[in-house]
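Batch queue: ligand-bound targets. Current item pairs a single chain with S-adenosylmethionine. No template structures supplied; prediction is de novo from sequence plus SMILES. Inputs echoed for audit trail.
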Amino acid sequence: MPPLSQDSPEQILLRILGRLQNRRGLDFREYRSTFIQRRIQSRFLSVKLKENDYAAYESYLATHQEEWDILFDTLTINVTEFFRDPPIWDYIERNIFRPLFSRPHPLTLWSAGCSMGEEPYSLAILAYEMSLLSVNPPPITIYASDVDPIALAKAKAGIYPQKSVLPLPSKRVKLFFTQEKDGNYKILPKITALVRFREHSYLNEPFVTNCQVILCRNSMIYLAQEAKDKALHNFHKALEVGGLLILGASEVLVGNAYDHLFDTSRIHPGVLRKASSA
Ligand SMILES: C[S@@+](CC[C@H](N)C(=O)[O-])C[C@H]1O[C@@H](n2cnc3c(N)ncnc32)[C@H](O)[C@@H]1O
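Prediction returned. Tokens below.
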């Protein structure tokens, strides 16, 4: 059989990613190429094509329109959990929320790359608990955004399988969830009411400003350096001076390229403070 295309795998990959951007608005050419290649090649095997056969996969996409959505979903990894990485949540409670909740100033928090909602709902649960302990609790708005509409739809529904809820202390499960007839757990309106979901890429202009805290955890690891710079500038723009950006446990910034934007000294690993001079 003659080859389907004379183009190199790299050229075909860029073409596929360009078409995906036209359909879905997100440019995966801004992500790390090794990550993209690994993920896309997992699709080749799933649709029974040879490893590395980019030309055959491009033809497959042309005749199987549903594959574009599956590809998009494959490139956005949605793994998440409630109160993921417990030490950072202890830090948020003690060192960030306690001082913020001791004053009535309205709070704006943003979970960027929120996946299926476990992270913003964890923020909302903690904020709700802190409000009960405060004499004069501040009004709270938690924004939560992701590029993946499938993950966002699950987040908005707020329904989770038992295994997602099981690691939570039973007190939190009783106070913040109700069990459905099918055994799943639905998060209660007193928590969902605090969270506003939105389809958005943090590589685009931020839709919110003057945030006290932004969480962007376990999402930027897939970005190429230039896109990471763009994301960090956008988060800088969205924070109030002195506001905090919280990255994932393994995402500590190396070097001093961002010193003009963020102060990382004397703070917790992965927590950056918007510098006052920038
Ligand atoms: C591994 S999940 C992390 C979820 C959560 N932050 C956590 O740490 O548990 C990464 C999420 O980032 C989202 N994502 C990837 N690129 C994004 C972008 N440019 N803008 C917004 N969300 C993005 C993916 O769709 C995915 O849901």
